[in-house]
Amino acid sequence: MKTKLIILTCTLICPFAFGQVKIEETKTVVTKTEPAVERAGTMGTVASFLPGSSITINQDALTNPRKYPMAKGVVFDKQSGAAVSPDSIKPGTRVGVRLNAAGEVDHITLLDPR
Question: Quick check: 36 pLDDT over 50?
C-alpha cells in the first residue's frame, strides 16, 4: 500500500516538475535613425516658372496650384537623363520636381518635352 501511495504521488508531481516555464530575458534596443535619403517630390503641369526663383505646379484639375521656391544649382533633365535647358520649361509642360530637405526644388525632370 505504501509503494502504491509513493507511485501515485510521484505520478501527480511529475507533470509539475517537467512542465516548468522557461523565462527568457529580452532586451529592446532603441536607435535613432537619420531621415530617409528618399526626398519628397511631385508631378504636374507647370503653371508658371521663374528660373532661379520659383515654379508653380498644378497637380491635377481639382487641386490648387502649389508654388515651390528654387534651390541654387537646380538640375534640369529629361526622363532619359539627358540635360535640358531651363528655357524648355514653359507653362503647360508636364514635369516632375524633387524637393530638398529645406523644401526647395533641386531637380526638375521634363515628363513630356514639347
Answer: no
CATH code for the domain defined by 41-110:
2.40.50
Other CB atoms closer than 10 Å to residue 57's CB: what's the count?
A: 23
Amino acid letter, residue 45: T
Segment (H or E) for 103? none
- In the chain, what is the straight-line distance between the N-terminal and C-terminal CA atoms, in Å? 104
H or E segment at 82?
A: none
Sign of the CA dihedral running 31, 32, 37, 43? positive
**The pTM of the whole model exceeds 0.90:** no
**DSSP structure string for 11-67:** HHHHHHHH-PPPP----------PPPS---EEEEEEEEEETTTEEEEE-STTS--EE
pLDDT of 88 > 50? The answer is yes
Q: How does pLDDT run across 57-85, given as a tens digit for each residue?
A: 887 766 688 899 999 989 999 988 899 99
